[in-house]
Amino acid sequence: MAITYNNLYLDIRQQFLRAGLPDPTLESRELVCCASGKSREELSRDGRLYVPDTVEQQVRRLAQRHLDGEPVAYLIGEWEFYGLPLDISESVLIPRPDTEVLVDRALACIKTLDEPRVLDLCAGSGCIGLAIAKNAPGCHAVLGELDEGALRVCRQNIRRNDLTGRVVSLQLDAREKPPAHLGEFDCIVSNPPYIPDGDIAGLDVSVRDYEPHLALKGGADGLDFYRDITRLWSAALRVGGRLLFEVGIGQADEVLRIMRSVGFGDLEITPDLNGIPRVVEGVLHKEL
What we know:
Blueprint: H1 5-18, H2 24-36, H3 40-45, H4 53-67, H5 72-76, E1 78-81, E2 84-87, H6 100-110, E3 117-121, H7 127-135, E4 140-145, H8 148-160, E5 167-171, E6 185-190, H9 205-208, H10 224-232, E7 237-246, H11 252-261, E8 264-271, E9 277-284
Parallel strand pairs: 3-4, 3-6, 4-5, 6-7
Antiparallel strand pairs: 1-2, 7-9, 8-9
């Protein structure tokens, strides 16, 4: 039986509501848009038109995969972060709203600088560094990432957001010393892997079975990357420059102590929109 775009969207939304999914309105709309090749505006405009059978079947297949746990961002191959459209693949974590506070803090730190240099370490999709560069017109950013698949996504997103002239991606290992040719940065931001290895098995299926474990596993206590980045990558930060981390629940105080122990001062903890301590930052007060 023929169905309109609007009724198909409402049907899928109702399925997601019954399943208790966190954002049924957004997710159902994105799946219908993806399968039909329509923008959000076109979907709204064409809501009373009938859906071709092949499109309806594709929407329902995508919806079932999502109900089985596969994230919408991987199903449609893109997601939005800080107002930027981003290509997404299973080589990178899906950008989350909690991370936007890290961008907010970094922009506040560099707003008085004419041409700040920013390094986004463990860049994944490049979402953090790209959002900073897009909103700080004089900024030049490096997206540092180890994984080849993630680097491909970074390059795609640099082009997609017209930032080729000010943003580059480089293969960098956050747990090794920075190469000397990188020079010094005014600001280093990082959302590193921070899930304790033993907690991976208990994660939600949408994370555990689909998101890359390389970007999740942070060692026995989840703090390995914070220790290594703070100790090694301070060499790539100018004295007076700022290091900013996203942290997991319950990690902020320990990350603050790690940073203090190697010469960072003016330390701050900033909560996310849910009031959870999410960003730890500090100023490098001495050369290490």
